[in-house]
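During the second year of the project, the team shifted from modelling isolated chains to modelling whole assemblies. The rationale, set out in the original proposal, was that interfaces cannot be judged from single-chain predictions alone. As a representative example for this report, we include one of the complexes processed in the last quarter. Its constituent sequences, exactly as entered into the pipeline, are reproduced here:
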Amino acid sequence: MRDQAAIVGIGQTELSRNSGRTELRLACEAILLALADAGLDVKDVDGFVRYSNDSTNEIALVSALGLENVRFFGEVGYGGSAHCAVIGHGALAVTSGLADVVVCFRALNGASGHPPAAAATVGGIQAFTDPFGMLLPMDRLALFVRRYMVEFGITSEHFGNVAVSIREHAQHNPRAMLQRKSLSLAEHQKSQMVCDPLRFADCCLQTDGGAAVVIVTAERAKSLRQRPAYIMGFGQATGPDPNGIVFRPRISVSEATFAARDAYRMAGVDASDIDVAQFYDHFTPFVLLALEAYGFCSWGEGGPFVADGNIRWPGGRIPVNTHGGSLGEGYLYGFNHVLEAVRQVRGVSTCQVPNAEIALVGSAVAQVASALILRR
Amino acid sequence: MSELPLRPARPLPSIDADSEPFWEACRASRLLLQKCARCGLTRYPPRPMCPRCSSLESAWIEAVGSGSVYSWAVAHDRAAPSYAMVLVELDEGPRVFSNLLDVAPNAIQVGMRVEVVFKKVSELITLPYFVVATSAREATADNPTQNRANR
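Output from the structure prediction step:
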C-alpha cells in the first residue's frame, strides 16, 4: 500500500463562530475548493469517505454536486478518531480501483449549531456512565487524564506548556480563529477548571467550517497541478475493552500505539524519520499521550518533553500542530490537521519546517485511534 | 462564569435483557456483578459474553460494595452544582463508574476507600453511588495534609 495513493487537492472554508450557512453548503464549498486546488472537475468525483457523525451524507453530496455515478462510499465512526482512517479508506479505494477520485471531508457548525436534544434515557454502555453525569467529551476523558497525572507525576502546568506552544503557532496563521490571541502559561494556570483536572484553556475551540481533500492514485497524481502528498502509511486501532472509555484495564496509556505501529510499518519509517506532527488536541493532555504512543518519548515522559521546548516551531525536535491545531486554528474533529500535514510536505505552511519530507498525523483519543504518514 | 460548560440533563438508564437483573438488584440495594460460568472472570458493566473465554453463560454474584478510588474528576457546570465522578475499583476486581457523594473535591484521592450507597431516582431506577468509607472518613479528618497528595 505504501506510496500507492496521494492527496492532490485540499480546500478549507474560513473558520468562525457563525458561518451563516448550512453544514451541507460548507461541505460543498470545501469540496469545490479542494477540487479546484487539484485541477480536477466536480464530475470526476466517484468516491466519498466521511465521518459517521457528519450531518452531510453521501447521497446529499451526489445530488448537490450533480454526480451521475458514485462507485465507492464509506464512513468511519467514533468522532475525531476517524480523521486519519477516512484518508486510509480513500487510499484503499483508489488503489484497488474501486474509485478513481475520492473526496474526504468534514463540515460542521460546531459553534453556532444547536446540540441535539438531550435524550430522557440511554442504553448500552452509556447506561452505566451518563446517568452519573458523564455528559460531555471532557467528562468522558477527565478520569483518563487524572489517572495519567497520578501514575506519571504529570501536572496542570505540563498541559499548559502544550497549550502555549500550539497557540503560539496559531499566531502565524491567518486562517486561525485565535491568530490574534496569544496564551501564556500564567494565563493557562488561571483558567477555570471545567472538569477538574481539565481547565477551559485545555479545551479545543468550537468552530463553524468545512475542509476537504482529494485522493487519487500515485500514478494519476503525477499529472496534476500540485506537488502530491504521498500516503506512505496509515493505521486504525482499538485497544482492549474500549467500550465506555473508562472500563478498560489501563486508563493512562493510549491504544494509539497500535495505530502508530501499523502506520510506521506500512510506511517503513519510525519516529526518528518524522519531521513534523499534527496530533489530535481536543484536550491538551492527549498531545502528551500522542508523543508517547508515537514513539517520540517514553510513557509518562510527554510532559517533560514538551516543557523542554521539543514541540515548538521553529527549531523544536518535532514541531506539533504547526497551524495552531484544534486549540488555536479551529476544531474540525482533526480534519484540518490532515490539510496542515499536506501543506508541510508541499512546503507552504505558515510555520514551515525546513525541508519537511515526512509528516505524521495521529490521534491518541482514548477509545479508538488512527494514524497517517504523508511524504513529499 | 462564562467559561463553564452547560451540560444537558442526566438521562436515566434504559433497561435491557442483558442488564435487567442488575437494575432489579439495585432497587433492592444490592450491587451485582457477572461471573463467567466457564472461567470465573468477574466483570462489569453487564455484557452478554465473557471477553476472556467467550462463554455466553454467567451467574450474578453480589459485591460487598467496598473498593478504592481508581480515578476521579470534578465536573463544574454553569447551571448546576459541581459534582465528583469516580471510577471505583471494587475489592472483587471490576471497576464501577459513579459519583462520590458528600465529599469536598480537595479531599478526594486515588486509593481512598469508599463504599456503595443506593438512591432511588425513579420508579424503576435506583442508582448505586459511593461515599467515603467510615474508617477512611476518620483517617482523612486526622491527616489534612494527605488531602494534597495525588492531585
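The longest helix of chain A spans residues 23-38. The CA atoms of residues 102 and 221 of chain A lie 13 Å apart.
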